Amino acid sequence: MKVQITSDTSCDLSKELLEKYNIKTIPIVVMLGEKECYDGENVTTKDLFEFVSKTKKLPKTSARSTEEYKDFFKKFTDNGQTVVHIGLSSQLSVSYQNAVNAANEIGTDKVYIVDSLSLSTGIGLLLIDASIQAMQGKSAKEIYQRESLLAPKVQASFVVDTLEYLCKNGRCSALAKFGANLLKIHPSLQLIDGKIVPTDKYRGKMNVILKKYVDDILAKFNNPNKTRCFITHSSAEPEIVNEIIEYVKEKGIFDEVLTTVAGPTITCHCGKGTLGLLYINN
């Protein structure tokens, strides 16, 4: 294809989906203490959980530099392709600005950077749509304009099973964690204007509250693009995941219900057992 769609590994698309839609990714750096690893290459979520269990410390993530983005993009532009890149929200990481800087150096007619205003498969929804547009012969500029308009319409939200990781990275206090654990409270987080915002609190067992969460989201964002949705989770219990998949499918809203497991970058910040329903709301 003349247009190459790219992202970073925070998009949480499976290898099968990346191959199917010809999407290329640059790995985000994950620091396990002093050890520098690359998401999707030499670190897994299992490694992450083992590190936290052993050290009681949270791994850190790091954006790729402008020069690294430049080298990544030039793999395609030097081959005569134009790039449309959709990565982490500009409000969550300097990745976006570093990618923009790289595009400015290569040429903004050769590399287009879309601000996803999202994370995980909120980015993935835009990437798949962009890839389909590229396959249909749309220009990079047309795809950039389309995805920039779609980005604010992405409904990306999650219910967190444990506050441990959020507390470790400073997003909640230890006292809040203590109270939440006692009361079995699970917060719901929503991407709003590219930022992560707590919106609701659920109390009870995860399989029960996740169904309530799904109902609430579908009621609140009630004009979904019915083509596809994602159920994305950070190594949640298989029984719970399967139960929610079937619950969403039974509603008969979406033509395609895709499931992915969050990689180390996203799991670093939300912890194990988080689950979200993501789709484009028209």
Please tell me the total number of domains.
2
Residue stretches low in confidence (pLDDT < 50, at least 5 long) are 169-183
> Could you name the CATH topology of the largest domain?
Rossmann fold
Got a strand count? Answer: 13
User: What's the CATH class label of the largest domain?
Assistant: Alpha Beta
| Overall pLDDT score | 91
How is the biggest beta sheet arranged? Answer: 6 strands, mixed
- The ordered H/E elements are EHEEEHEHEHEHHEHHEEHEHEHE
Total of helices: 11
Please bin the fraction of helical residues. Answer: 40-55%
Shape call:
globular
Distance between the termini: 28 Å
Question: What Rg, in angstroms, do the CA atoms define?
Answer: 18 Å
Identify the strand order in the major beta sheet: 10-9-8-13-11-12
Structural class: alpha/beta
Give the second-level CATH assignment, the architecture of the largest domain.
Answer: 3-Layer(aba) Sandwich
Q: Indicate the proportion of strand residues.
A: 25-35%
